[in-house]
Design goal:
The complex is a heterodimer of chains A (240) and B (244).
Chain A (H helix, E strand, L loop, with lengths): L4 H40 L13 H21 L3 H20 L8 H26 L3 H8 L5 H31 L11 H12 L2 H29 L4
Chain B lengths: L2 E12 L2 E12 L3 E5 L6 H8 L7 E6 L2 E3 L6 H7 E4 L11 H12 L4 H14 L15 H13 L5 E5 L7 H16 L3 E5 L3 H7 L2 E6 L2 E6 L1 H6 L4 H9 L3
Parallel strand pairs in B: 3-8, 3-9, 6-7, 7-8
Antiparallel strand pairs in B: 1-2, 1-4, 4-5, 9-10
Classes of the chains: A mainly alpha (240), B alpha/beta (244).
Chain lengths: 240, 244
């Protein structure tokens, strides 16, 4: 019973289907997580000198409330395992909705629950990356922008964001890869992603060595694609 | 005299540390006010209060007819008319020299890209850097960066220019080129407030000299007279220390 390639060849169609689903969840997670993480990360800093200091009137209230929400969200996600988050969203959230609002029968399918989980999870970590990279922008540059009389939005979009973004690329790449690998945990809510496909094939032919090797290679290829594309973006960015 | 900046009983503290004590000061149009004094005397803080980078703790500060802190929501209107040059230049590192200068006209004055670039070209010429427009700040010397920074501050045609120790981070040779540009700006008739240790600039281009000590304006007068015959021991000491 040596290493037999035919088992790998046989498993390719199912593994590819699994990889496709893994890729799909990951991309949605990265895009959604980046959007959520940017908003949460900026709100986390609302009112601080890193983003131009205190605001006035209604914006002051919005930034205060936003900051509290952002802190709560980040701590909640960072403080709980992603498996528990997936289980909660898939199994417990429908019950919570029923108890709290009396609405019965709301249930996400497993894939939707997986996508929501990965977005929420990646978003929290990315929020901290956004916060760190924004805080790393020299305060003098922020003041130079403020001193020109531009709006806060212009300050963030034209000065802080381009400088912070380049610095955020390496830790973001790290998080992209972590999120991709985290999708394997959705095996627990029955999403047919790559790991689950591998597990199912393995259960039918017991070729653990061939199948898990093939699964590992599939993950390696996908994480390499992520890493290389980030490297490409980083190279294309202007010198900061 | 037409006042453009007016400090009325201004105090500023950081926590429990009082940095400015009861500052009363009126600066008129086209004045070139040079502020000197030992470190920690409140010069930079006073300057930074003018464009609201620091908010005063008490008193009133009227800049271009807007009164702080009462009208602090209109701080942007002040900043649009007040250009600032920093000790460490703070050019935007992701923009070329030309883009740095064109940024203000585009964002603050709503100029088109072509208009802004033309203006940037003019200003680059004025500060003697026509051939450096496409360079990123990291590829420029300190003196060149500071000259671009002056052009950036002037790009929106401000009524007031603030200089916060603009030559302190530069080698002696590079100071000269920056001081020359500043002298040229002074001749254009823009109101200037300059915090510096360059006494030569004070006597050459300044129309008024302020000596600050421990958060107060200790001397206020004609640079020629104050520098030639300082009336107080404190100023005499200080001038000796800076080697004037």
């Amino acid at each position: 019973m040596g290493f037999e390639f035919k088992y790998i060849v046989e498993s390719i169609p199912s593994l590819l289907a699994g990889a496709k689903l893994t890729w799909y969840i990951t991309i949605l997670g990265i895009v959604g997580g980046l959007a959520l993480g940017t908003v949460a990360g900026l709100f986390r800093l609302a009112g601080t000198s890193a983003v131009g200091g205190e605001s006035h009137g209604i914006f002051r209230i919005v930034s205060y409330v936003g900051q509290k929400f952002a802190v709560g969200y980040i701590e909640l996600i960072r403080g709980t395992p992603i498996i528990v988050q997936a289980m909660f969203i898939y199994f417990a959230l429908p019950m919570l909705i029923e108890v709290a609002f009396g609405v019965k029968g709301i249930r996400f399918n497993a894939l939707t629950a997986a996508v929501i989980t990965i977005i929420l999870n990646a978003g929290a970590y990315m929020a901290e990356i956004v916060r760190g990279s924004v805080q790393s922008v020299n305060k003098g540059l922020v003041e130079a922008g403020m001193a020109m009389g531009i709006s806060r939005l212009q300050l963030i979009s034209s000065i802080i964001a381009p400088i912070a973004f380049k610095r955020a690329i390496p830790p973001l790449g790290n998080q992209f890869i972590i999120s991709l690998k985290d999708t394997s945990l959705f095996i627990v809510i029955g999403v047919g992603e790559l790991t689950r496909q591998g597990q199912e094939i393995m259960a039918s032919n017991f070729r653990a060595l061939e199948i898990w090797s093939a699964v590992a290679v599939c993950y390696l290829i996908m994480t390499s694609v992520l890493a290389l594309s980030l490297k490409f973006i980083e190279k294309r960015m202007k010198t900061v | 005299m037409n006042p453009v900046i007016e400090f009325k009983k201004v105090n500023k503290s950081f926590g429990k540390t009082e940095v400015l004590h009861d500052i009363n000061l009126t600066i008129g149009k086209k004045e070139v006010v040079v502020v000197v004094g030992p470190s920690g005397s409140g010069k930079s803080t006073m300057l930074r209060c003018i464009n609201g980078l620091e908010m005063i703790t008490s008193g009133e500060l009227i800049v271009n007819d807007i009164c702080l802190p009462r009208q602090k929501r209109q701080i942007r209107e002040i900043r649009k008319e007040v250009g600032m040059v920093f000790q460490l230049f703070y050019l935007f590192p992701h923009m070329t020299a030309r883009e740095n200068i064109a940024f203000g006209p585009k964002k603050v004055r709503g100029a088109s890209k072509a208009e802004a670039n033309d203006l940037a070209e003019d200003l680059l010429k004025k500060v003697g850097l026509s051939d450096r427009g496409d360079f990123y700040p990291s590829a420029l010397s300190g003196g060149q960066q500071q000259r671009v920074a002056i052009a950036r501050a002037m790009s929106v045609k401000p009524k007031i220019m603030l200089f916060d120790e603009p030559t302190s981070a530069l080698d002696p040779e590079l100071r000269e080129e920056v001081l020359n540009v500043m002298t040229a700006v002074a001749r254009e008739g823009i109101t200037m407030v300059v915090v510096t240790h360059e006494m030569s600039f004070a006597s050459k281009a300044g129309s008024r000299l302020l000596f600050m000590d421990e958060g107060r304006i200790a001397e206020d007068g004609d640079p020629e007279i104050l520098l030639k015959s300082p009336s107080t021991e404190r100023l005499k000491d200080f001038l000796q220390h800076v080697g004037y």
